[in-house]
Amino acid sequence: MQALLPTRSTLPLFDVAASRRIEARALAHSPDLMERAGLAVAKLALALRRGEGPIWIACGPGNNGGDGRVAARRLSEIGLPVHVGHTAPPQPSLVIDALLGLGLNRPPDAALQTTIAAMQTCGATILAVDLPSGLLADTGQAAGGAAVRADHTLALLTLKPGLFTGEGRGYGGQLWFDDLGITPDEVASADLLGPSPLPQRNPTSHKGSHGQVLIVGGAPGMQGAARLAARAALACGAGRVYVDLLGLPATEPADPGQPELMRGRLADLPQAVGVVGCGAGPTIADALPALLREAPKLVIDADALNAIAADDELQTLVRARTAGSTLLTPHPLEAARLLGCDTSAVQADRLAAASELARRLACTVVLKGSGSIIASPGERPAICASGGPALATAGSGDVLAGWLGGLWAQQPGASGHAIACAGVDAHGRAGEAGGVLRAGDLIERLAARR
Ligand SMILES: NC(=O)C1=CN([C@@H]2O[C@H](COP(=O)(O)OP(=O)(O)OC[C@H]3O[C@@H](n4cnc5c(N)ncnc54)[C@H](O)[C@@H]3O)[C@@H](O)[C@H]2O)[C@@H](O)CC1
Asked: Taking every annotated instance into account, which residue ranges of this chain make up the domain YjeF N-terminal (predicted)?
């Protein structure tokens, strides 16, 4: 058993169907899986229990409840007070939620919701077995809006995507994992991202060795967004960073507070990685056809995404680009506009939404939000487990776009998918802080890890 986050390497995630197949094959040669699962739960319960009161174990009708009953027996065997039932005992020292796991197939009914509410209000730490009851393992949504908000979740046998994206991080609490001694014999449904190595700098290199980035955006009144993206690309190590500030005379400095940045235009920088859309406003639609036809690599964000969503011809140009050369970074509302649906439909199944958008536009998609998804045609989707609420601040998306552009400039041979995985994870890890991070601080934290 191990605490899971932050991840030290990329880990495989298995959806319900794949987990079922792994479980069925494992049971053929290891019929004691439930014993192992219950023992793992009992061990973690021992470590988490606070006080002398009974450990309350709420068991459901299936094997998730079976795990709970094994844990109850194990804990009783060592003399601990245990209460198995759907109502709270006085002053429990821990709650074990073993109501529903992988087998959830409908929203919890009123009786179950009453038990969930009792768990939530009894004041003890909640340990969920495999999944918080009510949380859908594939999507990270609460079925019918009702699920246990656990303090800890011990995932068993496999890690499920729903623990890491959508609302999953909010329901799972601190995550633990026990593979029950089984090596999965299935292709993973998705990857949980681990850290990627940063581009190496050769001792004999010069600024020309580290590529060029061209930021296109920053309409009047919104230049800060383009400048944040530019500063992030510079901090990432791009050799030269240029800014095309829409509507600002070319004689004006790119960024008075960052003299390393230069003004530039697509026509003069045919090799630069384009980062397009940060604070761009609707006029970006005029610049997009040339950028989509000519820029060798593009990171497309914000207003550029909205322009593409509103224009079939721009969508055709996106699809016509070389495979692996285009990276879109929508938040859920932008993704919904591109897909022609509403935000709740995107959030209901983030993996599916990102994969569908990647398929439709033939490019890499970073669907931002808790548990960002990276999806590309022909690649296994990835979920970013790093990051947190400190990133929910103005400008953090501009910093991500710039950082991705900076990474790509230094690794021109990498696909959009590889750049997105590396950059999104680095951005998330740098954003793991208490309170709120200003976007400028986020750049400093990213640079410090460089
Ligand atoms: N089979 C085994 O040996 C193992 C089982 N494991 C455990 O088994 C779990 C999966 O077991 P199951 O497939 O039995 O599924 P669950 O125990 O999650 O639930 C299935 C049962 O709950 C009912 N149900 C579903 N949604 C409900 C709702 N909203 N309200 C009320 N009842 C509802 C179903 O009709 C079914 O009877 C995993 O999550 C894990 O905890 C793991 O420990 C691995 C080993």
From this structure: 19-188
